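re the bet — no i am not wrong, look at it urself. input seq straight from the record:
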Amino acid sequence: MMILNGRVAVNGIPATLGQQAALLRDEITIDGVLLNQKDPSVYIMLNKPRGYLTTLKDDRGRKTVKDLVADVGTRVYPAGRLDMDSEGLLILTNDGQFANAVMHPSNNKAKTYEVRVRGDAENGARLMRLPMEIDSYTIRPAEVMLKARADDGGILQITIREGRNRQIRKMCAKCSLAVLSLKRMSVGTLELGALKPGKWRYLTREEVEMFLN
């Protein structure tokens, strides 16, 4: 009856019986009120601390990144991941197309990590610059710089263009290095900067477009 009475419109035109429409594609109104009004797209960067899962729900009651972004005002989900013991730059969004662009292998954006290790850091840095096989897959040589030495190890800056599961930790293990801390510092030209652990900020338009171009 609503259609016959002219109360339903699709893309501003009165609907007809038997007409097909899609909520996610078409603007459908009843008495001028949108049925499919969506939250505005949100893009944020979080400095994830250690001890938080990169997920929105955990059946064991552990802390998740959802706890840190509750004040965003809309539901956002991670575009990519950092394991529980890792920290640093994590992107969250409610835009599925953008999330796919961030996570897709063709993205090819450089990801830089600061890694504190125990062991022969100088030799490990040398080995990581060579082709290496992890999980029966030959990864690309990493860009590795020894930033600081310590009696029992050092701090490495490691840049990779792949995102295989726990790749940095597996690379270090292959080089007999124990990872003491691991922090993602940048993705492409997006840098963590002075953002404090547990805090988030909106991405700028230019930062969003960097992942889409």
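see?? Helices lie at 96-103, 121-128, 167-174, 205-212. told u. also Residues 96-103 form the longest helix (8 residues). so pay up
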